[in-house]
Amino acid sequence: TILKKYLLVAVVAIIAVLTLSYNATTTILRLSPLETVWSFSSHEDGTHYGVSPMCDDIDGSGYTCHETPEIPSPRTNYSVNNKKQYDLWWEAHTALNQSAAHHVRRRSNFQPLVLMGDSITEAYLGTVMGEPQKQATEGIPAVLSEMAQSESFHPLVLAIAGDQTQHLLYRLQHGELPSSISQDENAIFVIHIGTNNIGKGHLPEKTVDGIVAVTSYVLSNTAGQIILVEILPRGDGSKKYPRLCPPQCDSYGKPFTSFLPAVDKVNAGLRKILPDISYEYDDRLSIVDCSSSFRMMDAANNASNKYKDEPTINQEEEVNVSLMPDRLHPNANGH
Q1: How far apart are the C-alpha atoms of 326 and 330, rounded to whole Å?
Q2: What residue stretches are annotated with the SGNH hydrolase-type esterase domain (predicted)?
Q3: Phi, psi of 55 (to 5 degrees)
Q4: 154: Cβ–Cβ under 8 A, 6 or more apart, which residues?
Q5: Among 131, 84, 64, 115, which Cα is nearest to 226's?
Q6: Residue 300: inside a domain
Q7: Comparing C-alpha atoms, which of 203, 31, 191 is closest to residue 126?
Q8: 174: closest CA among 162, 185, 166?
């Protein structure tokens, strides 16, 4: 499994560093319940959900987003499709607060492993926005369970489908990161967030700001090691970009067709900024790139060696659909 492999490499490296330091003195073509179950709606209180885009340029005065990636915010009518989804987010956030408290009460000798993010990470719970989704997450909870048992981890998943950086930042600041966990020097914190920012219209530069804000907050409020997983490639640009144009259009006024340039810009920005931030925090941050097995060009080059028992790779795809069937979310093999 891919994410598990990269996470284990990073975790093993961190444990080795901690040990040395002590001795001296981590064909589901729809995770689209998010898109198909909940339609756009208005509520009796007059709030319209999912009607206005996250980012727009209504009067031509400039590119404006209604939520800012680096400023903590709960989900608003700009980041949910309807009232039900809005309520589900708050319920999921409350449930994660309870899970964090329960994790503290059930402390064991196993090493705490805290996984923070969006739907890609929430899949480890077998849920989407707190609701069980067996088909969309099939086999994924078992990946985490097996790794936790084999590596003696005590996992805590703090993730909600559809979340962007500002939403994760809000959740962490409102109960999901108890001090008894955050101040454990043996804890490992894994951050994987940001793809929904670009998917909803935030520019790469602002998405970098959001990821840096989350990472900086975790660094400054924890004592353990942090692993930041770079944004994975996604191949759903031709489906999603028409909804983002305008304002995100090419020079001919047409929608972009690929998210890969934006993903690359975000990851390049992170690689440029975060090493200096890590240095400020005693090099407690590791950045992990898991993209090579998911990106079509890299996967095609390795297909004969890695995927002999899997479907023939489609050269027209941007991502390896045998690992990312809906072109956004890794399946169990991808995890």
Answers
A1: 8
A2: 116-335
A3: -125, 140
A4: 103, 106, 107, 108, 110, 111, 112, 113, 148
A5: 115
A6: no
A7: 31
A8: 166
Percentage of the chain beyond pLDDT 70 is 81
Q: Three-state DSSP class for 69?
A: coil
Q: How many CA atoms lie within 13 A of 250 on its CB side?
A: 10
| Type of residue at 22 | Y
CA gap 149, 166 in Å, rounded: 32
Mean pLDDT score of the chain, rounded to an integer?
86
Number of domains in the chain: 1
Q: Both tokens of residue 241?
A: 């970009």
- pTM for the model stands at 0.86
Using one digit for the tens of pLDDT, what is the confidence trace for 308-317? 444 444 557 9
* pLDDT tier for residue 49 given thresholds of 50, 70 and 90: confident
Tokens 């304002």, residue located: 247
Lowest mean pLDDT among 26-30, 48-52, 134-138: 26-30
Around Cβ 173, how many Cβ atoms within 10 Å? 12
**Nearest Cα to 217, choosing from 183, 173, 274, 160?**
173
CATH code for the domain in which residue 123 is found: 3.40.50.1110
User: What's the full length of the chain, in residues?
Assistant: 335
Residue 306 has pLDDT above 80, yes or no: no
Residue 150 belongs to domain spanning? 42-289
Query: Is 265 a domain residue?
Result: yes
What pLDDT score was predicted for residue 36? 37
Average pLDDT of the residues in 164-188: 96
Considering only CA atoms, which of 260, 157, 162, 164 is closest in space to residue 209? 164
Within a domain: 305:
no
In a domain, 333, yes or no: no
For residues 237 and 17, the model is more confident at 237
Average pLDDT, integer, range 105-126: 93
Place of tokens 């027209």: 316
Chain centroid to CA 295: 17
